[in-house]
Write a structure and sequence with these properties.
Blueprint lengths: L2 H8 L1 H4 L12 H10 L19 E2 L2 E2 L2 H15 L7 E5 L6 H12 L5 E5 L10 H11 L1 E25 L7 E11 L4 E6 L1 H9 L6 E6 L5 E7 L13 E2 L7 E11 H9 L7 H9 L8 H17 L2 E5 L1 E5 L6 H12 L5 E6 L3 E3 L7 E3 L4 H4 L2 E5 L5 H15 L2 E2 L3 H11 L2 H17 L4 E2 L1 H10 L3 H7 L13
Parallel strand pairs: 3-14, 3-17, 4-13, 9-10, 13-14, 18-19
Antiparallel strand pairs: 1-2, 5-6, 5-8, 5-11, 5-12, 6-7, 8-9, 15-16
The structure holds adenosine-5'-triphosphate and magnesium ion.
Length: about 475
């Protein structure tokens, strides 16, 4: 993340009511583990040329050239903002890379375009209405880039001296009457005399000498940007962010760009506004559940946003909502989706499903392709993913093995490719990790064909398991036990 982007987002909590509480960085071991286990971590993008042509493999994606090119066109349309209010539907058999394609699209769009993934079944909550979940996802997929010019004091803290005086109101203790802060930039240093409330903010942000901070001149908000890199230590891994000494004067006008989504703004404004008194603190503790964002609130937020856009302060960045397993939505959700798609500020919608003809959920008699009512289907561009050849399965397995850091012995790839063709690509991929454990137990650092064979005896693929089930739908002629 660039320094400006970081500052922009960290300023969010002060200039707008949007909280940007960054999660603490994951520890090295969990980060390594999650990146290894995440099933799509080998997918880095669609792997297309600048003419939107798909090479047989690229960016971790093997084959599926038609679907990748189709998604490439959609990415171009989204980037040039000509795809809003429309939907792309990815259909195909299980394990043919639909979810992978959607994630590749998000990679291609970059971090600046909001991408909001969800699974169809997420709408079923006991607390929030189904349609509300959808509406919220749509709001989270519309970004707002706010540009502000602010007068700020920025620099590395060289001095931090609170100056205390007797408290006239109580006999005991002292209060801080003002605080002297020295700030240094490449160009020079400046000593500021600041209000005691700013000193509280300094303590809250845990600012010490050697940190790079900035203070907004008109609001007095203080932000810690990071530690000055003059203080950088020689550890390879640390949670601290080191930043260079700011350039220019200590006192300057600064352009801040900040990316939020309409969903962020709704949520921030729906939260009970915490007052100072004890009751409101208790109230906010007890109301820790989700508060519903009403339509009225959304309209208010829209009005404010429109004002910003008209003034040229903000720019709307329509993003993407991705609804995986879309057949899990029911008829109410589908009609609501139609309406959402037609609203003036709609993001692009990507849907994925592996169903053929299916009953539309929530109805008893409407069977339609992919379990999606025809009126919504009519609004979709449909892209089909194809099955994989044995060779392609082999390539995907190889890519995965590389990502997971597994070595394959002679013949293993061919064997897994066969398994993949007989069972499914997922099954072949799933055999990798347990086989590597077996290899480790045998004291080898590579997987052998015998490991795969043994795994095959222990585990069943979906087709074999289906074959084992008797005609009456149970084991051993209908009896389960
Ligand atoms: N063409 C491909 N190149 C590389 N990896 C692939 C490709 N297709 C699928 N994969 C990988 O195979 C696994 C299964 O694919 P994915 O989850 O995308 O399937 P899906 O079509 O979404 O299936 P389902 O309908 O069951 O949800 C994932 O780990 C995915 O990253
Ligand atoms: Mg999927």
């Amino acid at each position: 993340m660039s320094t400006t982007a970081m500052k922009a987002s960290s300023s969010a909590s002060t200039s707008t009511p949007v909280a940007h509480n960054a999660l603490p960085p994951p520890s090295a071991s969990t980060a390594a583990r999650s990146s290894r286990i995440a099933p799509h971590s080998h997918i880095k993008g669609l792997g297309l040329t600048s003419e939107v042509l798909a090479a047989p493999d690229g960016a971790g994606f093997i084959g599926q050239t038609n679907a990748r090119e189709a998604c490439g066109v959609v990415v171009d349309l989204i980037k040039s903002r000509r795809f809003s209010g429309r939907a792309l539907l990815l259909v195909g058999a299980p394990g043919t890379g639909k979810t992978a394609l959607a994630l590749a699209v998000s990679h291609e769009l970059g971090v600046k375009v909001p991408f909001c993934p969800m699974v169809g079944s997420e709408v079923y909550s006991t607390e929030v209405k189904k349609t509300e979940v959808l509406a919220e996802a749509f709001r989270r997929a519309i970004g707002l880039r706010i540009k502000e010019t602010k007068e700020v004091y920025e620099g590395e803290v060289t001095e931090l001296t609170p100056s205390e005086s007797e408290n006239p109101l109580s006999g005991y203790g002292k209060t801080v009457s003002h605080v002297i802060v020295g700030l240094k930039t490449v160009k020079g240093t400046k000593q500021l005399r600041l209000d005691p409330t700013i000193y509280e903010a300094i303590i809250k942000e845990k600012i010490v000498v050697g940190d790079v901070i900035y203070v907004e001149a008109n609001t007095g908000a203080v932000k810690r940007v990071g530690r000055s890199d003059a203080y950088a230590s020689s550890y390879d891994l640390e949670s601290e962010t080191y930043v260079p000494l700011p350039k220019g004067d200590v006192h300057k006008r600064k352009e801040l760009v900040q990316d939020v989504t309409l969903g962020d703004l709704d949520a921030a404004n729906a939260r009970p506004q915490g007052g100072q008194d004890i009751m409101s603190v208790m109230g906010s503790l007890m109301k820790s559940g989700r508060t519903e964002v009403t339509d009225k609130l959304r309209r208010e937020v829209n009005k404010v946003v429109k004002g910003y856009v008209d003034q040229g302060v903000a720019e709307v960045v329509p993003g993407v909502v991705f609804i995986d397993e879309v057949h899990m939505l029911d008829i109410e959700c589908f009609t609501y989706l139609n309406a959402l798609l037609e609203s003036p500020m709609a993001p692009t919608v990507i849907l994925a499903t592996n169903r053929g003809n299916a009953l539309v959920r929530g109805t008893t008699d409407i069977v339609s392709p992919h379990g999606i009512p025809v009126d919504l289907l009519d609004r979709c561009l449909i892209v089909k993913t194809d099955g994989y050849s044995q060779e392609q399965v082999g390539k995907v397995v190889q890519v995965r093995a590389n990502v997971e850091g597994l070595k394959l012995g002679p013949g293993v790839l061919e064997r897994l490719a066969q398994e993949g063709e007989r069972g499914s690509l997922r099954y072949a991929l799933q055999l990798l990790t347990p086989a590597s454990i077996l290899a480790g137990l045998a004291g080898r650092n590579h997987i052998d064909v015998e490991d795969i064979g043994e795994m095959n005896e222990l585990f069943l693929d979906a087709k074999t398991s289906a074959g084992n089930i008797g005609g009456e739908g149970g084991f051993d002629g209908g009896r389960m036990w």
